[in-house]
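Project standup — Tuesday

K.O.: blocked on the structure for the chain from last sprint. Re-posting the sequence here as requested.
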Amino acid sequence: MTQMTASLANITTSADPEALVTALAKAARAAQRQLAAMPSAARAAALHRAAEALRAAAPAVLAANAEDLAAGEARGLSKAMLDRLALNEARLGGIADAVAAVADLPDPVGQVIDSSERPNGLRLSRIRVPIGTIGIIYESRPNVTADAAALCVRAGNAALLRGGSEAVHSNRAIHAALVEGLVAGGVPAEAVQLVPSQDRACVGAMLTASGLIDMIVPRGGKSLVARVQADARVPVLAHLDGICHTYVHAAADPEMARAIALNAKLRRTGICGAMETLLIDAAYPAPQALVAALIDAGCEVRGDARAAALDPRVIPASANDWDTEYLDAILSVAIVDGLDAALAHIARHSSAHTDAIVTDDAAVAERFLNEVDSAIVMHNASSQFADGGEFGLGAEIGIATGRLHARGPVALEGLTTYKWQVRGDGQTRP
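H.V.: unblocked you, prediction finished:
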């Protein structure tokens, strides 16, 4: 145990969340300076050790996860929430694989964004650098512990993790394994810390730790993200809702439309990229079959008047349905009169996360891709692909729907900022 770790162990017994977060953040900042000075290859090698340690710790992690699942069932967590929480050998193997994949990604740190030479001979470059210390506040998904830690370390950032009470045992087991591997690879233990308290006041302390934490990333439900965005005194990278649309255009292939709609809604209903609203063009030739396929697959469909007329099992939609992230096997369906009506509906109700069109008309597809103002816009693909791993980013720390710094899946590049380097030959300003 390092001197810093030993002193932190004493502080974790404190009843003062602000003092706890301050101590953790100060330790993280000191560790981050060491981490940023490590060669890129050394950080990558340490992450490979972390992935190996996570695989070796599988029995302990799965036992811890079983504790969390039992507690969640006793608390009455929904099926979707339990699915987010659940780990098995395959999912845990995927988490370890993601850590290894991040290790092998190109390191953005030190990348020259652009360079120029001024008339006076000064040579200017913009260079990618780590952001610093990043706080991640998340709920029931234990994979976030590993994904966030790996991405932060690869980009030279320290991570301060605060997981939800639903996954407390899983998070601790995953964190312990990761740190074991990272330390074996020369990374300071304090570079990846898990807040040891579930006191909600710790979240508030992180949100106001300006000067100690450089950026906050929330991963969780609407209430969590809304609180973070409302209370933070630290820059926040986040999305609030995942109200994702799929528009089946008149020129859509019916079999493709069916396959995409079923996958976008039902593959995993509890993820932020799940389709929540299906828009069907009034000129699409097979609307009844599309709606019936969803209902037959176990999806509750809530529709407008024209959608309700397609199948007696459709429940009339309320005004609130168009602005609801169900995260369940529930879908709102509207019939729209052409592309312009679909674009208008999406503009009114989309959360700017992910919106998709299914069509064989290339010109219509290009208009949709250009005019829908969302972080991710898709053509002939399921919105469930809205994921950093699927985008070739190795993993993601979150999805951002704002317009500053980063948008869409945030991975290594989104965890860097830049600085200017100026090289001269003795120039003085007149």
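K.O.: great, moving the ticket to review. The domain at 244-385 is CATH 3.40.309.10 (Aldehyde Dehydrogenase; Chain A, domain 2). The longest strand covers residues 123-130.
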